[in-house]
Amino acid sequence: MIVRRGVVLLVAIVLAVEIVRNSAVAQFAEFAPATAIRFWPGHPAAELSSAMTDIGRSARVGRSVGGDVFAKIDKAAMKAPLAPEPFLVQGVRAQLAASGATALQAFSAAQRRDPRSLAAAYFLADHFFRSSQPIEGLKQIALLARLSPTGIQALAPYVAAYAQNRANWPQIRQLFQSEPMIEEPVLVALATNPGSVDTVLALAGPADRSATSQWLPTLLRTLADAGQYSRARSIWAQISGARIGPGTLLYDAGFSEATAPPPFNWSFTSSTVGVAERQRGGRLHVLFYSQEDGVLASQLLVLPPGNYRLSMNLSGDLQHASSVIWSIRCDRSPTALAEVTLDVAAARGWHIQIPAGCAEQWL
Q1: What φ, ψ does residue 42 adopt, rounded to 5°?
Q2: Rounded to two decimals, what is the model's pTM?
Q3: Which residues neighbour 214 within 8 Å (Cβ) at sequence distance 6 or greater?
Q4: Exposure b/e, 18-52, CB count within 10 A at least 16 = b
Q5: pLDDT in tens, 342-357
């Protein structure tokens, strides 16, 4: 009985050591292969990680990979037939040898062994795009986006570049339908290019054409930077549902239309400067703390050159009315065209002259 218990205890200790050692190898193999090797020199995960590191070092310095490295991978593959790394290496070697069919088989085998392998998805996407199979390539792109924490943002510019060709729009729409989480980042990436405005508007689905769409402010800023102010305001009104009547110069002058977003609607501040907010009855409610300067409310206007007059009524505690001003400046200009204190504007109105060459203004 004592001997049997001793055997059981010995087996338990051996198993515990193996579990700890295997866990240590699994933990360090990917990020610290040298440490993993010290824990278990012959472990296939450690050998594969070490070999892949050797390949990476060789590629970085432009040196060919030695045969001993490939021998190490082949040896580890015999021990771990389900590991994807040997097939990834085989696929890359096949690519370099211009054997596309063999590369596809190898990368596919790697992905079957590890469906969460970023490398397998990357190489498969690259293969399919090179082979003019965009649908399959986009599927791998979507998989990469799901697997990587920052995959969507990292891949969005590449999908956006593919979307520049109108012939690819059906495939892009299909990708957005199957992988909706990638649509917004791709549209944002497209929105940074003034030449892609029509592409954004064509590809944005019904669920992504609203005042809260993330791509809308980017697109508006892109058009403004390109000097296409009127088109920016037109798209803003179309997407946000803003009602702009004929001759409307200042949107939401009655402070009652909160749905449409800035910049062509009011942007309000709540900060150490003070607070600005809409108030029932068509009013703008302002609290100014009189401690520091800053902007409380602003709107981007598209006024043609000419003379204008702004009038308003004031109510409430007007002790600091002379400390609060309206100002107007051309977009991207650091200095104001004109400014006036609230009390003066309320008493006499504010006369503004917009010069030629000032196509867009911040009020």
Answers
A1: -95, 5
A2: 0.62
A3: 184, 187, 188
A4: eeeeeebbeebbeeebeebbebbeebbbbbbbbbb
A5: 889 888 999 999 999 9
